[in-house]
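Q: Structure for this?
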Amino acid sequence: GAVVSQHPSWVICKSGTSVKIECRSLDFQATTMFWYRQFPKQSLMLMATSNEGSKATYEQGVEKDKFLINHASLTLSTLTVTSAHPEDSSFYICSARWALVYNEQFFGPGTRLTVL
Amino acid sequence: GNSVTQMEGPVTLSEEAFLTINCTYTATGYPSLFWYVQYPGEGLQLLLKATKADDKGSNKGFEATYRKETTSFHLEKGSVQVSDSAVYFCALTPYNNNDMRFGAGTRLTVKP
């Protein structure tokens, strides 16, 4: 149980376009979902935290208008990278928290974004 | 604030060698502690966890003990295999808090 999926697993887009990444909890209802960014050979950096039906809370330095997060249901959160540029190229990982499991997050497999 | 300090890599070992990756933390109260493993091009997989002092997490031959007195959660394995080559992340979640903090990650390479 507690499986999180992400779609797509990789995406290549042109500079200036927008890209949407989906994060789904497949077999549980996620009270909270998180979005992380990981640069090559670096650790995960928390971008934002989202609760179903409310606005996401962004970490300091993360542009809200660039990284749009929508947590439409207890099983789906989306991250839209708007007007993407090459510096947005990165590995994006989502995670979800399940109320039945104390203090743990379940991670998706990640999405590799390359902006040309 | 809450933070995790992890032994810097990369670490290169021969097959069947003993592995230790050090991890210390700073947190108020009693955080939950985790080790995650990341294989190339993949997301994070939970390796083991401990939620209170003196707990020992174990999985696939890996072990880590939650030491409150030394604020540590060192990862150990008695005999590594080539398939253990990956990046290992130590992480914590503060008590009753969503916010997970990660160490910098340690890249392990095991040579045959």
